[in-house]
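Appendix B. Chain record.
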Amino acid sequence: MRHGFHLAAALLLASLAASPLRAETSSIDDKRQIASTFIAEKLAVWQKRLNLQDWTVTVVTSRKADLKQGTMGKIKWDKGKKTATIWTVDVADYTLSNEELLKDLE
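Structure tokens predicted for this chain:
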């Protein structure tokens, strides 16, 4: 799994590095788009790994101030309806490098 993660992260970061904006100076909107794509890919991997393909799982980004103090996310699920919502911190609230940010989001 780690190899697959590194390959996906490298490809996403390479797409930023190839643009006029360097990876670490990219705009928040660029980082949000990359994070969104990355999260969607990883969500599919983890749903398959955990045998949750029949669940509807939604990932929502939230500003850190909107989450419970001291947390970096939350989850709410309904086993009967097979639904889950995962809240994660918006990239605007991260101070990590892009590569570390993607590792943390996974």
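Further analysis of this model is presented in Appendix C.
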